[in-house]
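From the shared-data thread, chain only:
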Amino acid sequence: MKHELAFLSATEQLSAFRNGDFTPTEVLEAQLELVTADRERKDERINALSETMETEARAGAAVATETYAKSRRAKHAQQLPPLLGISVVAKEKHGLAGRSLSMGLLSQKHAVAESDHPIIERLRAAGAILHGRATSPEFSCATVTHSPIWGVTRNPWNPQMSPGGSSGGSGAALAAGFSTLATASDIAGSTRIPAAFTGTVGYKAPYGRIPGAGELASDRYRGDGPMGRTVTDVLLMSSIISGTHPADSNSWGPNNQSPLIEEASLAELRIGISLELGNYPVSQTVAEAFSSTIQQLQDLGANIVEVDLPWTTDQVRETSFAHFGQILAPAMAQIIGDSQAPRAAYTDRFIADAMAHAESMSMIDSLRLDALFNQQLNTAMSEVDVLLCPTNAVDWLRADGDYLDGLSVSGRQLKHYWEGHMTSPFNIANHRPVMNLPCGVGEANIPIGLQIVGQPWDEKTVFQMALAMERIIQFSNGNPYPALAGTLTR
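Structure, as tokens:
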């Protein structure tokens, strides 16, 4: 079927393009047909894209198709760009020169990027086809994806539910077959949360490994990164966008070099596990999926070690929001200025919460909280190579939810809805690479994810573990919503 092409991995496509089995144009058309059909729906659109660039994308696909044809006709093998003909949607905050850079704000809808973001620049150079921009919440400051400027983005697995945030448009686009790869960003879980809710793979690299843009690239909690449907695809994309770049003085490491040198067996790794990361109120469904995955690892001879952490969700919230109150919230307030344009309620709440924390403690106090947090994690992981834990404590979030009054998980009322996600600890400890991997499907037909947390700067082991686990779990991350293609084309 034509739509099956839309869900093929990048590595499958690259092999087929080289062999002439099908072309970049055929894959792009299959994906654009799903995008168009979604746009024409009357109810519960996935609405993952803020903008499409179909004319430019078709021209790029045609060039890629001809380049592969010429390569096959050549007598000698040619070195082709590593992502030639592969479609990518870019999170709107990743600027494309001459196009919108609104950050999801109505007040900034006329803002335009002066240059390509470093990862956009590298994707273009690698031959990728940028055919769409992905939606996000305002300022990428929520774990749901809806805003006055773009409306509600929905989860292809269940359109009543959210794909998460803030890279919700990226996750939804991948799960719906709108694209092969997607860019994402992560300052408190914005890559891993939507990857978990959409059954995709999302990677948060160590701070600075993937270059950022602008003054907020100096925020040590943040980072940009790749999302895809397989670990191998994410590994490929990560190698292309990683490395030192002149636009980001905090960037480091080589470019176009895979962190994976050889695969490792599970028996060679010491695998730490923590279901609750201290006292997160993990839902029964998430706990069962996580425990089932751990049992599979144990049955295969993996060396599993329980890891104890002294953290509380109060500590995580206070540490992260003290940081946000010193850096991110003031920057957001400055951009908003005296604008009276409508904006989401979660934005004002985020700024107010973060500012309140900043007023109650100094920058030095905030740094002390960060240092304590990292110290505790270093101690807990001192005897293991990786740590496994759930990505989300909650089963799902409503697509249009604001959750200003917090939310309840396993009978416990949380003060802030961010406490329903187990990702922020590893932005506080942002020198550690972390991968989200799908591990099951739970309540309301929404996927469940787990995190693979590495030692500082050790990308290699995280990818080795992810590849090994992907083969074991064998999660089906093709078309996740069997009715979707049929519904869209009726």
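The chain is about 35% helix and 15% strand.
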